[in-house]
Write a structure and sequence with these properties.
By secondary structure, the chain is of the alpha/beta class. It is 35% helix and 19% strand.
């Protein structure tokens, strides 16, 4: 993405794509957008991987694009991991961004820490459990979508073995896997659920190898939390003739043809609501849980494979979705 970092001090470049300086933390004071001090509403997004992954990162970028379009905001996005995270958070705050979103659990601790030095910037992460006056998190209840995927796999599995392939071993991913396993066991008590973490964010080869190993052990349905490495999961499933589930975004149309359904996050409404709260000056640090009842989570089957699914299973999935949405069934999740 190209940087959109205009600074008021650069009168000749106020709509340019590169900022020309930064301010000290003590100058970062909360001021309403209408004050004239910084007229543009500025929102930045940090992601752990490329937004071209058709999954976790792409979903967040879609939310950022909605903010840009609906609120006429100046937006910027960059990949940020490890030791770069704090520096990138600080850089955006110094450039007078009103809102900085860190897309993942790993951004929560650094965001709350950096927020102390920049009271005029709001820092929000899309996972995590810590917050302060100008920092917090909105947690997508993706476990609900994973529960339905797991239930579906339990109903459809012929081998009695299914698998979960993750990249980094972090609490947010483990929690979604907990939901998937719970759904599978609800459909088929005693089902075997293989759990594997590659420990790598975007390594397609590692994800493919882990998936192939699980299939060798009997898995005939595989879900992932592998971000850009998901293609490795899909490719292994295609080669071995088993089904995969998409995650975070609708990945049903993946060219592999192996994806039978996707547990998805609908990010736009949550991102827009957050941005409007910040823009209006009404944001208060907290951790919000958004799920099916708010239209933020769903499980959608691949329509091109619908003929392979028995009608009674389709009905069970619809009934399950309704129960979760109405709060009649609480999907298990970890607290972190």
């Amino acid at each position: 993405m190209k940087n959109l970092l205009p600074l008021f001090a650069c009168a000749a470049s106020v709509v340019a794509l590169i900022g020309c300086g930064s301010s000290a933390p003590e100058d970062n004071k909360l001021a309403p957008p209408s004050s004239g001090r910084e007229k543009a509403f500025k929102v930045a997004l940090l992601t752990p991987g490329p937004v071209s992954d058709s999954g976790w990162n792409a979903m967040a970028f879609d939310g950022l694009e909605a903010i840009k379009k609906d609120l006429n905001a100046v937006t910027n996005q960059r990949e940020s991991t490890g030791t770069k995270i704090k520096d990138d958070l600080r850089s955006y705050a110094q450039d007078k961004y009103n809102l900085v979103i860190g897309h993942g659990y790993e951004y929560n601790d650094p965001a709350v820490e950096v927020a102390k030095d920049f009271p005029g910037t709001v820092f929000v992460t899309s996972s995590g459990g810590k917050f302060s006056s100008n920092a917090g998190a909105f947690r997508f209840y993706l476990e609900q979508g994973f529960y339905i995927a797991g239930y579906f796999a339990g109903e459809m599995s012929r081998t009695g073995t299914i698998a979960m392939i993750g990249g980094p071993d972090v609490p947010s991913i483990r929690s979604t896997f907990k939901g998937f396993k719970a759904g599978a066991e609800a459909a088929k008590p005693g089902i075997r659920v293989i759990e594997t973490f590659t420990g790598k964010e975007n390594d397609i080869a590692a994800a493919k190898q882990a998936t192939a190993a699980a299939i060798t052990e009997g898995a005939d349905f595989v879900i992932h939390q592998a971000n850009a490495a998901a293609q490795g999961v899909f490719d292994a499933c295609k080669e071995k003739g088993v089904y995969a589930f998409g995650a975070n975004a609708d990945q049903n149309s993946n060219p592999s043809g192996a994806v039978i359904g996707s547990a998805i996050i609908v990010a736009r409404p949550a991102f827009l609501e957050l941005a409007k709260e910040v823009q209006s000056g009404n944001y208060k640090g907290s951790v919000k849980l958004v799920g099916m009842d708010k239209g933020a989570i769903d499980f959608i089957l691949n329509p091109t494979l619908a003929a392979k699914i028995p009608a009674e299973v389709l009905k069970k999935i619809d009934d399950l979705r309704a129960k979760i949405s109405k709060g009649e069934l609480t999907v298990p999740k970890d607290e972190f």
